[in-house]
Amino acid sequence: MSADAAEWINSVVAERAPQAVRCLDPYHLVAWAGDALDKVRRQVWNTARGGKGGRSDVSRMLKGARWALRRNPDALSESQQATLATIQATNKPLYRAYLLKEQLREIVAVKGDNGKLLLAAWLRWASRSRLPPFVKLDATIRNHLTAIHNTLDCGLSNARIEANNTHLRLLTRQGYGYHSAHALITMAMLRRGGLCPPLPGRS
Asked: Within a 10 A sphere around the Cβ of 143, how many other Cβ atoms?
């Protein structure tokens, strides 16, 4: 089974399905690295603003840098690529945090025994990175290492469930005022093509 790292999920599964192989959802794993990267970026920003009048050069560099740092490399615009190049040249700790995030994302894509070997190297790198958010993330990942190894072996994720949840939240907002749960369930079946045959004009 695939889930996030919430303790209530782990405890219920351990009690009700002790035979289950628990996997950590890869989206949440990469999101942890993204959050650690954001913390490093904010630390750099706060340090730059700490002096009298602030450091305008760093402030300009970091303006709009969040999305350049968070987006996948193949989705970057030209201006975001330029922002990353500037960060690489002028702020080594922040660029190191970016590389740590990207390397973890690639490890999830590699999977299997090779992914495990890369993850072990990543953990050593993070623990020596001198970036407190990533040192803390190193400890968090080690605490969930068995579930992460299971993820790399099985390739499970929450993607389909999360997509269904997103559709259901949208339908709930659109259908504010439904008189019963049955109406929402019917709309969900129609929207997802559940029990409804193809109808003219439906995509």
From this structure: 11
